[in-house]
Amino acid sequence: MNGASTMTAARAIDECPPAGRFAAHRAAENGACRPDERPVQLELVIPALNEELRLGPSLAAVCKHLATLSFSARVLVVDNGSVDATAETAAAADSAAVPVRVIGCRDRGKGAAVWAGMQAARARWVGFCDADLATPIDTLDEVAARLADGAPVVIGSRRCTGASYTHKQPAVRRAGGWAFRRLSRDLVPGVADTQCGFKFFTADAAAVLFRDIGSDGFSFDLELLARAAQCGLPVIEVPVAWTDRDGSSLRPVEHGREVLREVRRLRRLAATEESADHRAGAAAA
Is the pTM of this model over 0.90? Predict the structure, then answer.
């Protein structure tokens, strides 16, 4: 991003509504670390539910790559109520080179788990990825370059120029994805892929976007990006080489109904906020 774009993003953050409980938490913790933690440049949140089998190899790959970067990083694994050895597996990956911290989250759902991780994060850059590493961790190299250039929101995309599938999704998931994009595209104009689980933010942008999130499941990513659009925050998509992994929890009928409810809710929310903005503008005039 150029200097003008960076200033525009900063102004959009300043003009967005107060960041609520998330920002209050960050303000209270700003610059502070637990006695056994050092400040880092980037914190990566990984939500995990019963992931003991995949998590070990995934964390090994993540930590190996993070250790090669020119800036410091920490991994925050959020155990979302697992009944297996997910927490123990995560704790075993901790090292001096790349610390791994385990956080518990009683509220079920990806959105709830990511939110809990974001509350605990205190780095300049924060983000999240899936435990199965469907998006290769080396995608972070381009993401970090864009963040360093001033972009407030940088996300992985399976549908932008340069993206590819190394192992395609089953037909039912592709059909569901097509329907989801058709339903939600008016909420996130210009964003080709809202659902890739690889998203990063500056701390200021995260404080705005994660305030009082209403979605805790599959629509969580959509709500984040819809908020970015409402706040005028530019979203940069970087191409990924996606690998579809076995073990998806997608249930087409149940989650289809959930998506419909969430899209309607987000449209109502956007309409309410637009109406409030118009009233405020009229009053100011």
Answer: no
